[in-house]
Amino acid sequence: MTLTLLRQRALKIPSLIAAARRFNSSLVETEQDGEIFLVSIARPEKRNAVDAETAKELADAFRHFEIDDESSVVVLYGKGETFCAGYDLEYLSTRGPDEFLRWLTPPGEGDGPMGPTRLKLTKPVIGAIEGHAVAGGMELALMCDLRVVAEDAVMGMFNRRFGVPTVDGGTVRLPYIVGLSHALDLIMTGRAVHAKEALNIGLANRVVPKGKTVEEAVKLAKMLVCFPREALCADRKSVFYATFNADSFYDALTYEYSKGVKLQIMKDSIEGAKQFLQGKGRKGSFDDYLD
């Protein structure tokens, strides 16, 4: 990424450059594993509930990931046995409605209450879901492209019980992930969704043993890292455009073509064809991309 482009983006997101310099804190921890960037909510004593400062640190960590050319995939998880219990209701209860409304910002003018949920990330995000991912925590999970879920995990819009609004993209993303009928059920009732049901309705992509979600999410991330990056990111971007932005089917096809037909992708495609002729990936094998 050029310095000019970085500066242009920094004008749109004022804290972008600052985030690149500072993204570790006592509330949010990060780790680099090759091309994989790991982000963890580090408030296990609060079941990783998010307050204003945690939200800011989370958003900054994801901004760092976005501008870091060395990072291809991010894995989001919670320290301890809980992914995220949502917004910190203890913190919220000490604020008056007027103060809270002043802190909230509309999309396009600032981050969401949970932090990174409004960012337009151009690289894959994988969520490792242990324990509860509820209320705002479920909205963080929905922000992820893929969700690796523990077999005893619980998800749900638990904020329904207390009248806390869903304003981090939950009502926007969920229908596209599980379908309108399932989404309305989960959003209006706020009921718990366990791992088996989550897998059945598409809310979970993988279900793994308790305590193994980060390990399995990293394995999945390493598989994605093995693929040519330009084509993967172009296809990912096309999916999001077709889902949320396209005016028509033809518009989506045109966008897909414009992003796919680029010199670097064509070079990677030709190199991939040569590897296939040499025996790699024959008969649908992914062995070269798996541990």
Automatic annotation (TrEMBL):
Signal peptide: none
GO MF entries: catalytic activity
Domain of life, per lineage: Eukaryota
Pfam families: ECH_1
Listed InterPro entries: ClpP/crotonase-like_dom_sf, Enoyl-CoA_hyd/isom_CS, Enoyl-CoA_hydra/iso
Gene3D superfamilies: 1.10.287.2460, 2-enoyl-CoA Hydratase, Chain A, domain 1
Family statement: Belongs to the enoyl-CoA hydratase/isomerase family.
Name this polypeptide is given: Enoyl-CoA hydratase
Organism: Pocillopora meandrina
